[in-house]
């Protein structure tokens, strides 16, 4: 601690206990700030309360509320009657640290949950695209089936036609059946060019 800071502390302590001043030291926080109180010289209801900051670069007019605990701020504004105790401030600081730790845990849990939701959304989108692709392929195959069936039918049609040998044999059978019905027996010759000859009855000669 420098000599200037030591002298400043001694001066502040002397002012706090100086007779006739009416100001007394109400308390001190963990930052080293001193809090004073004295009766209102105008006879007002609320006493005048001031703070002397430990940081020489700051003054009571431009200090930041972040440098003073909530309990001491309430005391300076006369919203609480008694100054806070060291134990009260310690409990409040512990509560703040616990709140910050819980907030970090909750924030990490939310980040993890957002990652899970993003993954589930991506998987669902991929599944939908897969179903749409399968349905599209099924429609294309159904459209192509009638043409394929027609082509197969056309290709199979020539195989159903009879060859010339079978056709000639069937023709001979039909002619034989026809000759039986009219009362004559046709001459049967082998070959694909067989044609039945005309026949006329001849009268027998008497001897």
TrEMBL record:
<dbReference type="GO" id="GO:0005739">
    <property type="term" value="C:mitochondrion"/>
</dbReference>
<protein>
    <recommendedName>
        <fullName>NADH dehydrogenase [ubiquinone] 1 alpha subcomplex subunit</fullName>
    </recommendedName>
</protein>
<feature type="compositionally biased region" description="Low complexity">
    <location>
        <begin position="141"/>
        <end position="158"/>
    </location>
</feature>
<dbReference type="InterPro" id="IPR052618">
    <property type="entry name" value="ComplexI_NDUFA12"/>
</dbReference>
<dbReference type="GO" id="GO:0032981">
    <property type="term" value="P:mitochondrial respiratory chain complex I assembly"/>
</dbReference>
<dbReference type="InterPro" id="IPR007763">
    <property type="entry name" value="NDUFA12"/>
</dbReference>
<dbReference type="Pfam" id="PF05071">
    <property type="entry name" value="NDUFA12"/>
</dbReference>
<dbReference type="GO" id="GO:0045271">
    <property type="term" value="C:respiratory chain complex I"/>
</dbReference>
<feature type="region of interest" description="Disordered">
    <location>
        <begin position="137"/>
        <end position="207"/>
    </location>
</feature>
<comment type="similarity">
    <text>Belongs to the complex I NDUFA12 subunit family.</text>
</comment>
<feature type="compositionally biased region" description="Basic and acidic residues">
    <location>
        <begin position="171"/>
        <end position="180"/>
    </location>
</feature>
